[in-house]
Fold this sequence. Notes:
- With 82 residues, this protein is mainly alpha-helical.
- The chain is 45% helix and 10% strand.
- The chain is built from three helices and two strands, in the order E-H-H-H-E.
- The longest helix is centred in the middle third of the chain and has 14 residues, at 23-36.
Amino acid sequence: MTITQSKTERKVTIYLDGPEGNAFNLIGIAVNLARQCCFSKNEIKSLRDDLMSKDYVHLVKTIESTFGTVVNIITDNPEKYK
């Protein structure tokens, strides 16, 4: 018999269609995730600069590409972010 521990998926859920979907909150979430993932101070600064460099869609796509394995991004309008 083999005994294993089930792995539960723990992801941060981000709802873009509400108050928590504002750009400042998203940047805060990304910086906190970067710290939890042991990014260096320079990597966090570079990430923050990138997040703030363009528009909101770029911000969302960058968070998704950087932290896609640990975040669920939810919106009623996914076509906007393609």
